[in-house]
Amino acid sequence: MELESKTKYDIFISYSGKDIKLVRAVAQTLHVAGLNVYCDDLAGHGMVHGGRSIDAISELLVRHLTESALMIVIDTDNARNSKWVDFETRFFRALNRPIHYIKF
Q1: CB-hemisphere CA count at 13 Å for 4?
Q2: Which CATH number fits domain 3-103: 3.40.50.10140, 3.40.50.2000, 1.10.8.640, 3.30.390.50?
Q3: Structural domain boundaries of the chain?
């Protein structure tokens, strides 16, 4: 199976919503570099807002994780304490796809 032919996004950004200003800067830099980046906030899927159920959030995340070739974790204290970052990284690891951590 060729990963590139099965993915929609080059990069999925995993982060804590408490770090959104930092995340937006990283996502913009990657986008300017020509990468197709999935970041729920930039896609209008912000998980903190919108009143989505846990099941709806999980389903949306799984779809976008599966559509991504690589994950970048914005590694902050907030992210290390986030249940969603934990969920995303565990799921992505199970897909056997690369995860890179950017420590702040």
Answers
A1: 1
A2: 3.40.50.10140
A3: 3-103
Supply the DSSP string of the chain, one letter for each residue: --HHHH-SEEEEEE--GGGHHHHHHHHHHHHHTT--EE-TTTTT--SSSS---HHHHHHHHHHHHHTEEEEEEEE-HHHHT-HHHHHHHHHHHHTT--EEEEE-
| The amino acid at 61 | L
Task: Determine the Cα–Cα distance for residues 22 and 4; give it in Å rounded to an integer.
Answer: 28
pTM assigned to the model: 0.85
Tens of pLDDT, residue by residue over 46-93, are: 555 456 678 888 888 999 999 999 999 999 999 999 999 999 999 999
**Residues linked to residue 14 through DSSP beta bridges, in sequence order:** 73
Q: Cα 22 from chain centroid? A: 14
